[in-house]
Specification:
The protein has 313 residues and is of the alpha/beta class. The protein has helices at 2-19, 22-25, 47-53, 74-82, 101-111, 125-128, 148-161, 186-195, 252-262, 276-279, 282-290, 295-298, 301-312; strands at 64-68, 90-95, 118-122, 137-142, 162-170, 200-205, 209-213, 224-227, 230-233, 238-241, 247-248.
């Protein structure tokens, strides 16, 4: 009886822990407790998301963080107080610092007692990022110019500075939607997602976009599309297993349908959007079953509904 009661307490405790929000599981320092100088606040609402996504780096030694565009340092201070807490963790901050922004940023670093943990670089990111070491940073946050051409260049440089397994964060993904593409970040971020689709894992897409850098399973010499446990080699028109490159047989019709499916991923999208004709193809359904595809992982939400209805017929 006593054991049963104790077990019940354990179950209640576990349920309580699982119900906690990320912000409860990963306590955050309240920056309002110190005399910081901030004139704006675009970041506080993102703190729970960052705490959840970056929890693996909290208190970890030798974490190297790069922030491109720091303004007054609200996100930088949060990182220093909540993630880069180990003595060996380090931040590099790049900004043009117009007006008195550099002085404000430095004072905020001093108030945080973290001035010696931050390398401050004053200059245009397009010039300064090229001077930094490749594969050196665990986390990179891009929040500088929001003009598409500048965002495009910042992404290109930052990608090669990021370690494999590292996290890349883009701010203001949906900013200024009423303005032309050239004046907002979205088109450059989506161009990156499209071009680097085989080397990223999408963590989050909302006001911000977060991705993890992963190893591309395709050999550099192969025109290849990875999908689930397979690779499709476009040059030789072959489907092979990732693990041992053993070939999977495809009929001429299956190959045609499969290629059509691989080409249905839209610009800037991670998941596939096949048309109604392909969804209605019985042979394509049979092929997906044979390959054991997880369609809920592969299809966009609206297309998944159509697919599941087709499965029920």
């Amino acid at each position: 009886m006593v054991k049963a009661v104790r077990f019940s307490y354990i179950l209640v405790f576990v349920a309580f822990i699982c119900s906690l929000a990320p912000s409860s599981l990963f306590p955050q320092t309240d920056t309002s407790q110190k005399d910081y100088h901030f004139t704006t606040d675009w970041f506080s609402g993102l703190e729970p998301l960052w705490a959840e996504v970056l929890h693996e780096y909290i208190g970890k030694p030798d974490v190297n963080y790069l922030e491109v565009g720091v303004y007054e340092g609200r996100s930088a201070i949060w990182m220093l107080e909540n993630v880069l807490t180990h003595a060996t963790a380090h931040m590099t901050a790049v900004d043009i610092f117009p007006d008195e922004r550099e002085e404000i940023f430095i004072k905020n670093l001093e108030t945080a007692g973290a001035r010696d943990k931050v390398t401050v670089i004053k200059g245009f990111s397009q010039e300064e990022l090229r001077k930094l070491p490749f594969n050196a940073y665990d986390i990179i946050y891009i929040d500088a110019s929001h003009v598409a051409k500048d965002v495009f260049v910042d992404i290109a440089y930052s990608w090669y500075l990021l370690k494999e397994g590292g996290v890349l964060i883009f701010d203001d993904y949906l900013l200024n939607k009423s303005e032309p593409f050239a004046l907002r970040p979205q088109i450059s971020i989506e161009a990156f997602l499209t071009a680097f689709i085989h080397s990223i894992e999408l963590i989050h897409r909302g006001r911000q976009v977060m991705v993890r850098k992963v190893q591309n399973p395709c050999h550099p010499e192969h025109d290849c599309t990875p999908i689930e446990e397979y690779l499709y080699l476009w040059n030789s028109k072959r489907l092979v297993q990732k693990k041992d490159l053993s070939e999977v047989s495809l009929s001429k019709t299956e190959r045609r349908l499969f290629e059509k499916f691989l080409n249905s991923r839209q610009f800037g999208r991670i998941k596939y959007t096949p048309d109604q004709e392909l969804i209605n193809e019985t042979e394509f359904h049979m092929l997906c079953h044979r390959l054991n595809f997880n369609m809920s992982r592969l299809l966009t939400e609206n297309v998944l509904d159509l697919w599941q209805k087709g499965e029920e017929v």
